[in-house]
Write a structure and sequence with these properties.
This protein has about 400 residues and is an alpha+beta fold. About 30% of the residues lie in helices and about 15% in strands. Helix 6 packs antiparallel against helix 8 (about 230-245), helix 6 runs antiparallel to helix 11 (about 310-320) and helix 8 (about 230-245) packs antiparallel against helix 10. The protein binds adenosine-5'-diphosphate and magnesium ion (MG). Adenosine-5'-diphosphate binds near residues 54, 55, 73 and 190.
Amino acid sequence: MSCFPSLFRKKVDSQTRSPSEVDEEISNIHNVNLFTYKTLKAATDDFCEANKIGEGGFGSVYKGRLKGGKIAAIKVLSADSKQGVKEFLTEIKVISEIEHENLVKLYGCCIDNNQRILVYNYLENNSLAQTLLGGNRSNIQFSWRTRYRICIGVGRGLAFLHEEVQPYIVHRDIKASNILLDRDLTPKISDFGLAKLIPDNDTHVSTRVAGTLGYLAPEYAVGGRLTRKADIYSFGVLLVEIVSGRCNTNTRLPAGEQFLLERTWELYERKELVGLVDTSLNGDFDAEEACKFLKIGLLCTQDNFKRRPSMSTVVKMLTGEVGVDENKITKPAFISDFMDLKVRGPPKSSEIKSTSDNANFSSDNRENSTLSSGASTFGTMTTSAAHDQSL
Ligand SMILES: Nc1ncnc2c1ncn2[C@@H]1O[C@H](COP(=O)(O)OP(=O)(O)O)[C@@H](O)[C@H]1O
Ligand SMILES: [Mg+2]
């Protein structure tokens, strides 16, 4: 392993980007370990199916044993991925520059001809999407204390990205499958491939609407307005998912209960929020605290994004350092209010690759579903996003 050698530049130059663009991006990247393809091939037994642990929008993820015995999650980006080089280099750059207890660690990367591979710290307990919300019930018991710790850990990781990293980072794809759990169930936010460093003096940056419908703030999804407040919206949805043990959308539930956030608001208005807490806790939880978390979820998803608290305030509310002012809670923004949504059933196996969030769910009543807006595919809609430095 070594830092980017000059030889490496030659290989990247042969990709779709112009030499000057590539040089510029690579010259900003320091201290990244480079793995050879041969090393990673050996680590994963030639990327064999048995070592495959997941499949996302950008490619397959394998478990591998590196020389010296370290276990890694090896993400092989699909060769036909149009954004491959860009996402790859962005992710390397961003992750290599930041470290936090609640963020996944990037060990290094590999570029070998067409192959682009990321090597991460392997997290033993998979993602929240699989273990807490997934159909295949895991052995993990998510007690109220565990959920409390997970919510606060994710909050701290995001607050770090938003308020401590300079320039700050908007993740853009906060969702249950991007929250990985280590042996002790400490949550780690993964996937900074979509994150973007926002230069302080940059007010308008052309970017792409990414993320997953259901977690997307309406002003971002519809207007392309990307600020930290869009992440805070997604965090609010995730918070409600963690407390309730339910996916943000479940078309198998009776009409009126399918959209978790709408249900949360309804129960809040009826003062019955406690009814939303995961029944698998068998009543063993701090009701006041759980309802407070749900209210914070409502605050984070407020329609007017200026009403959403900052992540550091959210963390303080979660820990009890700052109170939750119920007067500030108004009706949240429901994506269905803004879009002519078509709700599809579970994905066919051939669709799983492009709808990676659903790949982990089987068809029990926690099954997630894919939402699409008319004919457009949400994740690939191109738009010009306004970055508001004050938010
Ligand atoms: N570092 C990791 N440790 C353990 N499992 C991982 C790691 N990274 C990814 N995975 C698994 O691979 C799956 C696919 O990941 P990814 O390609 O990021 O797609 P997505 O985030 O859309 O699920 C994840 O849902 C998770 O189950
Ligand atoms: Mg992911």
